[in-house]
Fold this sequence. Notes:
- With 158 residues, the protein is α/β, with parallel strands linked by helices.
- The chain has helices at 2-6, 8-11, 26-39, 49-62, 65-74, 90-103, 120-124, 127-138, 151-157, and strands at residues 15-19, 44-48, 77-83, 108-113, 141-145.
- It has a single domain (2-149), classed as Rossmann fold (3-Layer(aba) Sandwich), CATH 3.40.50.300.
- It has a 5-stranded parallel sheet with strand order 2-3-4-1-5.
Amino acid sequence: MATLASCDWIRQALNLILTGPSGVGKSWIAEACGQAACRQGLSVRYERTHRLLEALRLAHADGTYSKRLAQLARTDLLILDDLGLKPLQAQERHDLLEVIEDRHGQHSTVITSQLPPDTWHQYLQEATIADAILDRIFHRAHRIELKGQSLRKREMKA
């Protein structure tokens, strides 16, 4: 965690994959990384993955798609929270690839997901798109799998 807090991985354009069950702290860690990056003068953008993909769908319709992609591409750290909460449509898979491709090797991306990484290919469905996305994300990524009970459940008991 100390290594992540230094933000050197962001300066090296590495990614961070946080997986585990609901409530174990994936989003909290992602947000803490984002906050550390902000404190060091890096630009950060937090997006719920399904909401971002919906916004990109609308951007296709209103002609702002390229502008939206450019904004995402130049952010030092993009946090994509909760990948895999709902099935992706074909256009959403293509849009996700565009976002990841534009950032690959240039800027860092944090992805949180309840899905284990070995199921992401199946989740993305379309083999060539899945291969392209996963190759760009995983080969330059720190991977952390969190385990345990939901912190929300523990708070309720206290």
